[in-house]
């Protein structure tokens, strides 16, 4: 059985999808971009701040499902410019314990929603 997970602490979906779906003990999140949920504005002043907002949005969705980054088993990172990888990776890595970090792929793409620079989704298991 699936349960829809929503929170006002992360951006509302901008299409026909939900922030996350919990199926059994597994959480599947939609990709998060750097929309500040309070203002509705994009955070694009630096790739570091953009990535931090993305990770805070992911954190809010995890919190709504009573999970943490420790429960994340897989992440998908989509970036518009692989030259930004090191900066994105530094911020991303600060949210995980390196010894127990999840599996992940990082893919450079031509465009992302709202033409942002980074989008991240996760799968978590409690």
TrEMBL record:
GO cellular component: cytosol
InterPro entries, sorted: RidA, RutC-like_sf, YjgF/YER057c/UK114
GO MF entry, a single one: deaminase activity
Pfam families: Ribonuc_L-PSP
Family: Belongs to the RutC family.
Name of the protein described by the UniProt record: Reactive intermediate/imine deaminase
Species, as recorded: Polaribacter reichenbachii
């Amino acid at each position: 059985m699936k349960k829809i997970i929503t929170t006002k602490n992360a951006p509302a979906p901008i299409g026909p999808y939900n922030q996350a779906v919990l199926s059994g003990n597994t959480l599947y999140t939609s990709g998060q971009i750097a929309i500040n949920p309070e203002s509705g504005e994009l955070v694009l002043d630096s790739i570091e701040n953009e990535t931090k907002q993305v990770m805070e949005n992911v954190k809010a969705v995890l919190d709504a499902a009573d999970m943490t980054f420790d429960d994340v088993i897989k992440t998908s990172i989509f970036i518009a410019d692989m030259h930004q990888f090191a900066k994105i990776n530094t911020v991303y890595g600060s949210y995980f314990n390196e010894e127990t970090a999840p599996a992940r792929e990082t893919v450079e793409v031509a465009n992302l929603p709202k033409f942002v620079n980074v989008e991240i989704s996760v799968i978590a298991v409690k």
